[in-house]
Amino acid sequence: MGDHRFPWVHDVDRGAFSATLAGVRAIEPSLVCSSHIPSAPGSMLGVLIDALAATPDAQRFEGPDQAALEAILSGIAPVA
Description:
By secondary structure, the chain is mainly alpha-helical. It is built from three helices and two strands, in the order H-E-E-H-H.
């Protein structure tokens, strides 16, 4: 497995992931709801499955370190 500081999707078993996505495609849901991505109507299922299938090969996101985060936050105006 890869570095666990990063999202799990890059370390997923590609065969199992593809089989799961194929299973979702096969049931042809009228709506797909997720806790991590926006809901998608069944008419967008192909686009959604294709996008999810590509995520293991996407560039890993590496967030800012503490100093960079503090610099970002210092530039945000306080809410009155």
